[in-house]
From TrEMBL:
Name this polypeptide is given: Xanthine dehydrogenase family protein molybdopterin-binding subunit
Superkingdom per UniProt: Bacteria
Keyword Oxidoreductase: yes
Entry-linked Pfam families: Ald_Xan_dh_C (PF01315), MoCoBD_1 (PF02738), MoCoBD_2 (PF20256)
Keywords carried by this UniProt record: Molybdenum, Oxidoreductase
GO molecular function, one term: iron ion binding
Segments forming domain Aldehyde oxidase/xanthine dehydrogenase a/b hammerhead: 15-119
């Protein structure tokens, strides 16, 4: 375990042999194309399908009036074509099914939808009259307060009172959401692009009122998700509805332009941070107040203030959210929901505080290390933030840094460096797994895990080989099929810990089997409960430190990244190669958040204009410089049998703050709204 084993499906992927959800050409299959609502609020009063149906090759147009009925959906974004109400622009108001995707697309344009539209509101503001304090944010209380933060802040020797803004951000996985569905009588099979096939099956079972045994869900290869495939999305429901309605297998491959409105996004945040300290830079008050929006369909709170409950020692804390329901597409999980925008604001404010105190920003963080988690009062199972900061500072030659802003010139360029901390909670869910010992001395591990490009198969085989005490090449691993033992999603950086725990348990039991194995082999299955966060006597989090160097062009306003270094403490690293890829991949996503990514809600139409990768700018290779991720050895006995913390999300946490702090160090100007595009910086 820990070896840099190569991804097992790598060759299949680069040769095109790996099949994705839209590539299951089930005989006789048809293709579906949604018709997105053209208004942001109101109801559908009629759908004229005649021109669409007249096109050769069109099989059907499903509308809210005639689509098959679904049972009530727990996730209201899945109640598609059930109701004429339009909660936001882009909501699916009709679905065309045709012989080819091209025909379906053309026919979707020919569908005429009539609306009774109402005025809409997509404008987020702190003082919005509908703003309310949510009960919950990210499974935690929406507001947490101790001490008397307002009074403590007012009495502080040094005060920083700043506000940061993060725009809407979009997941945009390389493989857009796609599903292929077919019915065989009352048996439903779907091939879908999902971070968790077990949940897809149970949700479809409820919606279509079928026993789970009559549903098969296959998600063998998944081209990324970043949270947007963490729960079933409308594509799988629509494909199943269309297949039932037409009696044909149906593929719905979402066009990238549909993703921003129907698959979830990171809601924008307005964050006010107040930090008060004594003259030595010890925090006496920390107030982190977040305003964000949710849709009319369901409540999702981007829980950006939660990080302030974990990071720094303070006798007075206020961590609070307010949310405004608007006529916007439903936000949802995007890589490190809460932590990514929250740590951008908190770690930028820490940098402002270091300036105000005339203190080195690494030393300021070290000085405010807590002995217990401030929010919960629990001891940390392990917390090696200081070691990450020290090790990163050493490797980045931080000691040689001139703290003065705006003084390093290289022709028209201004140069600067910045630092920020990272954190992400340790989560784990119940899972099951089975291992079969075969007569030829090899083993097959089975678990309905999702490999979303992270290398899940590979690391699970490593965990199994380790527990069995056999070489890695004797272990096969099957994932991504609902006939396999049920397992939780690849999300919350919890997949490997959850599935791996069950795999470890099954393999340990098999290894302990007394005497020779039966000649036809032996299968051992394990069901693990994990250990819910709330039950642990420990606060369990991964930590990290980011260091960044930028060059800011004073002529064009362009920010170029020169170097990025992330040092993480995330328990035991189970595969050095795929772990490094997770860390650096997330750091690149943080680079995008800092410099290029962001969308706007157009107040006239109530929708995002930036719907494709020409309008929504993810970093290209040329934007990504020398980027390095490494980790320190951490031995934490309070986690799981592998001793691992999650690594999928922490890399994006803090990256944008490190880059923003470097831009300040370069220019002497503090920008407080992302992304730092040339028009803002100039
Ligand atoms: Mo992650 S946003 O939990 O897939």
């Amino acid at each position: 375990m820990g070896a840099p084993a190569e991804r097992r499906e790598g060759r299949q992927k680069v040769t095109g042999a790996a099949r994705y959800a839209a590539e299951y050409a089930v005989p006789g299959r048809a293709h579906a194309w949604p018709v997105p609502a053209a208004v942001a609020s109101g109801r559908v009063t009629g759908v004229d399908t005649s021109a669409a149906l007249a096109l050769p090759g069109v099989l059907a147009v499903l509308t809210p009036g005639d689509a098959p009925r679904l049972a009530e959906a727990e996730d209201a974004t899945l109640a598609v074509l059930q109701d004429p109400a339009v909660p936001h622009r882009g909501w699916c108001v009709a679905l065309v099914v045709a012989e080819t995707p091209e025909t379906a697309r053309a026919a979707a344009r020919a569908v005429r939808v009539h609306y009774d539209s109402r005025p809409h509101d997509v404008n987020l503001s702190e003082g919005h009259r509908d703003a309310y304090a949510p009960e919950e944010a990210g499974g935690q209380p929406g507001t947490l307060e101790h001490g008397d933060p307002e009074a403590a802040f007012a009495a502080a020797d040094i005060r920083v009172d700043v506000a940061y803004r993060v725009p809407p951000l979009h997941n945009h996985p390389m493989e857009p959401h796609a599903s292929t569905a077919h019915w065989d009588g009352d048996r439903l099979t779907v091939y879908t692009s999902s971070q968790g096939g077990t949940a897809v099956r149970s949700v479809l079972a409820k919606l279509f009122e079928l026993p789970e045994e009559q549903i098969t869900v296959v998600a063998e290869h998944v081209g990324g998700g970043f949270g947007s495939k963490g729960t079933p999305r409308p594509d799988v429901v629509l494909a199943a509805l269309a297949a039932r309605h037409t009696g044909r297998p149906v593929t719905l491959a979402c066009h990238r332009r549909h993703l921003p409105t129907v698959t979830g996004h990171r809601a924008p945040t307005r964050q006010r941070i107040r930090l008060g300290t004594d003259a030595d830079g010890r925090l006496t008050a920390l107030l982190h107040e977040v305003t964000t929006y949710t849709s009319r369909v369901k409540e999702f709170v981007e829980y950006a203030a939660v990080v302030s409950r974990t990071m720094y020692a303070t006798p007075a804390l206020r961590s609070a959210h307010r949310v405004v329901p608007l006529d916007v597409p439903s936000p949802s999980w995007m890589r490190a929901p809460g932590e990514a925008p929250g740590m951008y604001a908190l770690e930028s404010a820490l940098d402002e505080l270091a300036d105000a105190l005339g203190m080195d920003p690494v030393e300021l963080r070290v000085r405010n290390e807590p002995d217990r988690e401030p929010g919960s009062g629990k001891p940390f199972s392990s917390r090696n933030l200081v070691r990450c900061l020290r090790e990163g500072a050493r490797r980045f030659n931080w000691a040689d840094r001139d703290p003065r802003p705006g003084v390093r010139r290289e022709g028209p360029l201004l140069l600067g460096t910045g630092v920020a901390a990272a954190t992400y909670p340790v989560m784990v869910s119940p899972s099951s797994a089975a291992v079969e010992a075969l007569p030829d001395g090899t083993f097959t591990v089975r678990v309905n895990a999702a490999d979303i490009g992270t290398g899940a198969r590979t690391v699970l085989a490593q965990i199994a080989a380790d527990a069995l005490g056999v070489p890695l090449d004797r272990v096969r691993c099957e994932v991504g099929h609902s006939e396999l033992p049920p397992a939780p999603l690849a999300g919350g950086s919890s997949g490997t810990a959850s599935w791996g725990w069950a795999v470890h348990e099954a393999c340990t039991r098999l290894a302990a089997h007394p005497g020779p194995l039966p000649p036809d082999g032996l299968t051992v299955r394990a069901d693990t409960t994990g250990r819910a966060d709330a039950d642990s006597p420990y606060a369990r989090h991964a930590f990290g430190a980011h260091f960044a160097e930028v060059a800011v062009d004073t002529v064009t306003g362009e920010v170029r990244v020169r170097r990025m270094l992330g040092v993480f403490a995330a328990g035991r690293i189970l595969n050095a190669r795929t772990a490094r890829s997770q860390f650096t991949g997330a750091m690149v996503m943080g680079l995008g958040m800092a410099l290029t990514e962001g969308s706007t809600l157009d107040p006239a139409f109530g929708d995002f204009p930036e719907t494709d990768l020409a309008g929504y700018h993810v970093p290209a290779h040329a934007d990504v410089p020398a980027i390095e991720a490494d980790w320190i050895d951490e031995d934490d006995p309070h986690l799981n049998p592998m001793g691992s913390k999650g690594i999928g999300e922490i890399g994006i946490v803090g990256t944008a703050a490190a880059l923003g702090n470097a831009v300040h160090h370069a220019t002497g100007i503090r920008f407080r709204e992302l992304p730092l595009t040339p028009d803002r910086v100039l």
